[in-house]
């Protein structure tokens, strides 16, 4: 027979009766929450855990059946292979990591330098057909990038940007500028325009007012936006694999994917390369975690 | 020199006409108050003078020179914002120094000027704090210091006292008047508080829906309102307005009362009029020739005096009385009217009738 705790609690003043009930309900819910979140965390984190384990296992342990979760010999050989070629010198993978750093870094800087002033302008000035322009800018993000891969490929072949880092930098910047404008416009809107008004009456020009008084207040927002752009460029795979072919130019995502598909796959190397690839994103996301949430929930709360 | 003149200012925000032909002449060295309810276009007028608002039409002249196209910096004005707009990452000192830094003054000049201003406004001990560490009144003083640290053509103030509590507001009113007198500079001061306007101004411009209703000294605006709306907006308790018309030498009210017609009203018989009576020009304690009969509606004791609400027909008259006045609601009362101080408006146009002739 099921008797809830509520029913056996002797009836007394209303307050005494409802309070424990509410507390019990709260505890019950939190137990369920923790259980569900644990399941979710295990499902989400298992691949990452498996990747890390594989990267430090010897190859024969990787294929062991039943799988060895704990009792395996730890080795750092795969990480060495990521950076050092088998005959000595730099490995192709290390070159691709360097390419990723250059491409993601430069394209992010470019998108920020173009996007932040644009966001400021859209926030502060009565631009003609502002809403239409902003919608047009946003609409470039509606489209899955894959849709334009072929046209871009043909255009790039014509102008000689195929298989060049500059080509990748430009296309990533083009994808990140709209995002930067939208995200930064939210941050600029939060900074009262009166600071700039006051600065102009102090005797500064409009640009000086922006540079000296508004820009410093935008720095946290710029950092968050730049990290988003950086993560996008860093992770991008489709354009990278279509528009580049040589090892000198190729970025890490297609390079890691390229490790799979031979007669034998060195899973240890794939996992180690993946760990190295994932680390910067984790570090950046950790550094700006506060702003990431602010960015995600931006505009959700009216202040 | 510091004259400010605006002519025919027009500005619309979408469908809202914020300024609809505003023309003002601010004489050198005057304390000029722009008074109006919220949404009247006061702040827009001030921002237009400052060069922060792009105008649809009209011109701004500073010291007689056309400055309509000038940048805010080139206009050589200082402004106190309603929100104070203190730079949040700068200390009070740096905030006050900002106008001097922008104009490339030497560090010793800046230090001297900031020191002088902070002692004038009693904020010496706040100089190293940031705006977030200041109270509303302290922020207001710092904002004021930032404006006063230079000697610009004119000072623009956008409801600088609105965000202060009442006691501080009264204090700052006196202080601002004192500062104005000691500087002898031109102040253009925007407010929706008629008490501020009447107590501080040399000249008041009353603004409504982007149009100037009346410009004059506080006394002129109070004693001889140009129209029914100004009469109703300026003065507390608000003026009582009674519908009536002239019949020979009498004014006949819509509620049936009659009063001797003031000799200076020029309206022909039968034309709908509004009789405006201020609370202090009415009495329930004295007897006179002209009086209205009504019943006691309510008493509003205000400490130094009591406002008696008297119902005449369907309309309520506000009468100023001594605090000793008493009575029960519904009681019949006779209200004595000082007709020499009454106002008569055309009920259709709202304009005052021959106020100048008295």
From TrEMBL, chain A:
GO terms for cellular component: plasma membrane. The keyword Cell membrane applies. SUPFAM superfamilies: MetI-like. It comes from the Bacteria. Gene3D superfamilies: MetI-like. InterPro entries: BP-dep_ABC_trans_perm (IPR050901), MetI-like (IPR000515), MetI-like_sf (IPR035906). It is found in: Cell membrane. Residues 97-288 form the ABC transmembrane type-1 domain. PROSITE patterns: ABC_TM1 (PS50928). Residues 1-22 are annotated as: Disordered. It is a multi-pass membrane protein. This is Carbohydrate ABC transporter permease. It comes from Nonomuraea turkmeniaca. The lineage of its organism: Bacteria, Bacillati, Actinomycetota, Actinomycetes, Streptosporangiales.
From TrEMBL, chain B:
It comes from the Bacteria. Keywords: ATP-binding, Cell membrane, Membrane, Nucleotide-binding, Translocase, Transport. One of its GO terms (molecular function) is ABC-type transporter activity. The keyword Membrane applies. InterPro entries: AAA+_ATPase, ABC_transporter-like_ATP-bd, ABC_transporter-like_CS, ABC_transpr_MalK/UgpC-like, Mo/tungstate-bd_C_term_dom, NA-bd_OB-fold, P-loop_NTPase, Transp-assoc_OB_typ2. The keyword GTP-binding does not apply. One of its GO terms (cellular component) is ATP-binding cassette (ABC) transporter complex, substrate-binding subunit-containing. SMART domains: AAA. Gene3D superfamilies: 2.40.50.100, Nucleic acid-binding proteins (2.40.50.140), P-loop containing nucleotide triphosphate hydrolases (3.40.50.300). Pfam families: ABC_tran (PF00005), TOBE_2 (PF08402). Residues 4-234 form the ABC transporter domain. This is ABC transporter ATP-binding protein. It comes from Nonomuraea turkmeniaca. The lineage of its organism: Bacteria, Bacillati, Actinomycetota, Actinomycetes, Streptosporangiales.
């Amino acid at each position: 027979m099921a008797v809830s705790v509520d029913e056996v609690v002797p009836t007394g003043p209303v307050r005494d009766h409802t309070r424990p009930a509410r507390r019990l309900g709260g505890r019950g819910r939190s137990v369920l929450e923790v259980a569900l979140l644990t399941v979710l965390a295990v499902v989400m984190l298992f691949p990452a855990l498996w990747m890390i384990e594989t990267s430090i296992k010897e190859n024969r342990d990787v294929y062991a059946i039943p799988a060895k979760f704990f009792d395996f010999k730890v080795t750092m050989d795969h990480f060495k292979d990521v950076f050092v070629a088998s005959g000595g010198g730099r490995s192709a993978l290390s070159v691709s990591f360097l390419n990723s750093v250059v491409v993601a870094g430069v394209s992010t800087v470019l998108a920020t330098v173009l996007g932040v002033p644009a966001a400021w302008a859209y926030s502060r000035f009565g631009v003609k057909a502002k809403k239409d322009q902003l919608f047009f800018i946003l609409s470039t993000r509606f489209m899955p990038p894959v849709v334009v891969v072929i046209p871009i490929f043909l255009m790039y072949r014509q102008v000689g940007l195929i298989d060049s880092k500059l080509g990748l930098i430009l296309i990533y910047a083009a994808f990140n500028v709209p995002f930067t404008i939208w995200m930064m416009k939210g941050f600029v809107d939060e900074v009262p325009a009166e600071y700039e008004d006051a600065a102009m009456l102090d005797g500064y020009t409009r640009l000086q007012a922006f540079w000296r008084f508004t820009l410093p207040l935008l720095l946290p927002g710029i950092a968050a936006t730049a990290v988003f752009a950086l993560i996008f460029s860093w992770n991008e795979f489709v354009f990278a694999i279509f528009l580049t072919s040589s090892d000198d130019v190729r970025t890490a995502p297609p390079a890691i994917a390229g490790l799979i598909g031979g007669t034998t796959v060195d899973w240890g190397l794939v996992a180690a390369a993946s760990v190295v690839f994932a680390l910067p994103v984790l570090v950046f996301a950790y550094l700006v975690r506060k702003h990431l949430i602010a960015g995600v929930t931006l505009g959700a709360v009216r202040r | 020199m510091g004259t400010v003149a605006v002519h025919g200012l027009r500005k619309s925000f979408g469908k809202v006409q914020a300024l609809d032909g505003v023309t003002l002449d601010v004489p050198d060295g005057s304390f000029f108050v722009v008074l109006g309810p919220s949404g009247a276009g006061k702040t827009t007028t001030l921002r237009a003078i400052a060069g922060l608002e792009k105008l649809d039409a009209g011109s701004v002249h500073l010291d007689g020179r056309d400055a309509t196209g000038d940048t805010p910096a080139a206009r050589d004005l200082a402004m106190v914002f309603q929100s104070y707009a203190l730079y949040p990452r700068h200390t009070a000192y740096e905030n006050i120094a900002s106008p001097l830094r922008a104009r490339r003054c030497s560090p010793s000049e800046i230090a001297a000027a900031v020191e002088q201003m902070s002692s004038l406004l009693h904020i010496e001990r706040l100089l190293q704090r940031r705006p977030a560490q200041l109270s509303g009144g302290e922020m207001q003083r710092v904002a004021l210091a930032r404006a006063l640290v230079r000697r610009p053509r004119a000072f623009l103030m956008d409801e600088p006292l609105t965000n202060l509590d009442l006691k501080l507001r009264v204090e700052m009113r006196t202080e601002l008047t004192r500062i104005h007198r000691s500087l002898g500079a031109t102040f253009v001061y925007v407010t929706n508080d008629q008490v501020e306007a009447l107590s501080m101004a040399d000249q008041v411009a009353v603004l409504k829906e982007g149009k100037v209703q009346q410009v004059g000294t506080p006394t002129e605006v109070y004693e001889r309102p140009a129209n029914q709306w100004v009469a109703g907006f300026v003065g507390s308790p608000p003026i009582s307005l009674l519908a009536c018309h002239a019949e020979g030498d009498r004014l006949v009210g819509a509620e049936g009362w009659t009063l001797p017609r003031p000799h200076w009203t020029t309206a022909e018989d039968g034309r709908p009029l509004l009789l405006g009576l201020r609370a202090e020009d009415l009495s329930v304690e004295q007897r006179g020739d002209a009086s209205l009969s009504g019943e006691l509606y309510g008493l509003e004791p205000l400490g130094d005096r009591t406002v008696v609400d008297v119902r005449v027909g369907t309309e309520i008259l506000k009468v100023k009385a001594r605090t000793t006045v008493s009575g029960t609601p519904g009681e019949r009362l006779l209200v004595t009217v000082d007709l020499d101080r009454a106002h008569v408006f055309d009920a259709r146009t709202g304009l005052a009738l021959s106020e100048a002739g008295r």
